[in-house]
Design goal:
Elements (H helix, E strand, L loop, with lengths): L1 H20 L4 H4 L25 E3 L9 H8 L21 H5 L5 E3 L3 H8 L5 E6 L20 H11 L3 E4 L1 H21 L5 E2 L4 H10 L13 H17 L6 E7 L3 H5 L15 E4 H10 L20 H4 L6 H15 L5 H5 L9 E8 L2 E9 L1 H13 L6 E5 L15 H17 L9 H11 L5 H7 L11
Parallel strand pairs: 3-4, 3-6, 5-10, 6-7, 9-10
Antiparallel strand pairs: 1-2, 8-9
Helix pairs in contact: 1-3, 7-9, 7-13
The structure holds iron/sulfur cluster (3 copies).
The site of one iron/sulfur cluster (SF4) has 14 residues, from helix 3.
């Protein structure tokens, strides 16, 4: 029965293609192709190609159930917008199809063995940077209760595996907010290119580049936390530790398949050097640790002393609404000179697993209208509003994954687990020594000693990026 329904869904998709995207005559143009499918227009699976930097397809495991096709088309609005074939497949690398595939025929592109090779190379200094969500997702692979906050076990395990330094990407989440809040203030006061969209999810950024290139100016130019972490590891950190940046292998450990794509973006290298060399997922780290006989629960450790201090604002980056809450805390401070009241710290209206949330926030004499969404089907609603001039929001957070990065494809995910991870990161925010990135002493030292002004010339070099139209992919 399931197979029949999937076939029906794919047929409906074909009608959509023929009617709205590719024009009359498309169905008649379908023919046998070299991909092994009887008809490239009726694929029951996603034609992931070998050069996809993030997603791997194991054809022999595929039962052609169509679940991945449905997830990609319905949740992320990608499949069905182009004519798929063996040589043509459009992808934003979100990994939603991985989560849909019960046969494990789709996975992230595994690179954990490359990390082991680097660790075993004595000429390399191997540095790990750990994203917020990994600490609440890794326990699933070691029989620990879902949502357990395991940061010390995680750091200790990375050290046991042989990483030379272990840093916290939450540090750069704080930094992202410093730059993004200042950018919001500038746009809002100048009334230019509003609304401002967040830019820390590479799948979302690529979606805008492909489908809405006329709106690229609305994306914050702030790099994602991992992209900032990469540029600073190879500069600020290397200088402080007296390491030749060419000898560093920087490894991002993330819940995310799309980060494998993001680190290869041609806009990111600085002075010819790629900031992050390898991105592995939570699941891949678990594979690496198990391969090395390391039991997560038996290890403890703490982050290195540089590029690791983080506020509670950085911690909640992994949650839907977290980037928004973090940015508004600092925007409030920037505009009023005081930290925000408790209701703005929590901003309950943008929390929870609803796919599209909104709030109005009063800062001094100003009211900001904000929205938070995940999955491109919800983002598309807001993008269309911006296109037709009916958008009422000033600042919009978009993430590709349900619940934000805690629901990323690189760790085992259910709605119940997502809720527990969100709750764990929120608790860590409340318990943090400060909940404001502008109070993070390491961030202050970084601007004082290396970057100069927020949004200044040096900060723009290391912390910002550019985007370009990718509509040619369609
Ligand atoms: S969900 Fe998995 S098994 Fe089903 S069609 Fe897609 S790749 Fe094949
Ligand atoms: S990674 Fe995302 S965009 Fe790419 S095929 Fe899978 S669901 Fe579609
Ligand atoms: S929401 Fe987070 S985990 Fe998901 S694709 Fe975006 S950055 Fe990656």
């Amino acid at each position: 029965m399931k197979k029949v329904n999937r076939r029906k869904f794919i047929e409906d998709l074909l009608v959509y293609n023929a009617s709205f995207v590719l024009g009359a005559g498309f169905l008649g143009a379908c023919a046998k192709d070299s991909f092994g499918s009887p008809n490239s227009c009726e694929l029951d699976y996603l034609p992931i190609q070998n050069d996809n930097p993030a997603i791997a397809f194991l054809r022999k495991k595929c039962e052609e159930c169509g679940d991945c096709v449905e997830a990609c088309a319905q949740k992320q609005k990608v499949y069905g917008t182009y004519k798929a074939s063996s040589s043509k497949h459009v992808c934003i690398h979100c990994g939603t199809c991985i989560m849909a595939c019960e046969e494990h025929a789709l996975t992230e592109k595994y690179q954990w063995k490359d990390v082991l090779d680097a660790i075993n190379d004595p000429s390399k200094i191997v540095i790990a940077s750990i994203s917020p969500s990994v600490r609440v997702g890794i326990g699933d692979y070691f029989d620990v209760a879902a949502g357990s906050f395991l940061v010390e076990n995680l750091v200790g395990s990375c050290r046991a595996a042989g990483f030379d330094y272990v840093l916290d990407t939450n540090f750069s989440a704080d930094l992202t907010i410093m730059e993004e809040a200042a950018e919001l203030q500038k746009r809002f006061l100048g009334n230019t290119d509003m609304p401002q969209f967040t830019s820390c999810c590479p799948a979302w950024v690529k979606y805008v580049e492909i489908y809405y290139p006329s709106l690229l100016n609305y994306l914050s130019t702030a790099r994602s936390p991992i992209a900032m972490q990469g540029s600073l590891v190879k500069s600020y950190f290397a200088q402080n530790k007296n390491i030749a940046p060419q000898n560093i292998i920087h490894v991002a450990i993330t819940p995310c398949s799309a980060k494998k794509y993001e680190i290869t973006r041609e806009e990111l290298p600085i002075d010819g050097l790629q900031g992050t060399d390898i991105a592995i997922t939570t699941k891949e780290l678990a594979y690496l640790l198990k391969n090395q006989g390391i039991n997560l629960t038996e290890q403890t450790g703490s982050f290195d002393s540089l590029m690791s201090a983080a506020s509670g604002a950085g911690i909640i980056f992994g949650n839907t609404g977290g980037v928004m809450r973090a940015a508004l805390r600092t925007a409030y401070y920037n505009l009023t000179g005081a930290n925000p009241p408790g209701n703005l710290l929590e901003l309950q209206q943008v929390q929870g697993l609803s796919g599209l949330k909104e709030a109005s926030v009063t800062i001094g004499t100003t009211t900001l209208n904000v929205a938070v969404c995940y999955e491109m089907r919800n983002a598309k609603t807001l993008l269309e509003q911006v296109m037709n001039g009916s958008c009422k929001y000033d600042f919009i957070e978009v993430m590709a994954c349900k619940g934000g990065c805690v629901g990323g494809a690189g760790q085992h995910t259910t709605s119940s687990k997502i809720e527990k991870r969100i709750s764990a990161l929120n608790s860590a925010d409340v318990q943090a020594s400060t909940r404001y990135c502008h109070e993070n002493p390491e961030i202050k030292a970084l601007y004082r000693d290396f970057l100069g002004e927020v949004g200044g010339t040096t900060a723009r070099k290391y912390l910002h990026t550019t985007y370009s139209s990718k509509s040619y992919l369609l």
